[in-house]
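[Meeting: bench + compute handoff]

Bench side (C.D.) handed over the final construct sequence. Compute side (W.E.) agreed to return the predicted structure before the next meeting so the bench team could plan truncations. Sequence as handed over:
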Amino acid sequence: MILGINRHLFLFTKIRYPWFSDIPNSWLMIVKFLEEYSPLNYSKVVVWNYLALVSFKCNTYGCSKWNAGRGALAFCVRNALSDLVYAE
């Protein structure tokens, strides 16, 4: 039974985290390995840049869930004073 648990947990970890190349075989070591894992965080600062007086800026955002056909799209239009002109 222990060997089955080790195998299933090892295979689950290989499928769930394919970027790990050095996953241990025993479940105690796998649990310890996963508890010590911390993903790299990525952040990006976005700053509004002022435009020429007679111009507009359109900011867009979109997302989808795989190929299930579900998705969302949003956008907003701002003028040179960064006032919101239109959003949808």
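W.E. noted at the follow-up: Residues 9 and 31 are 9 Å apart (CA to CA). C.D. will use this when planning the next construct.
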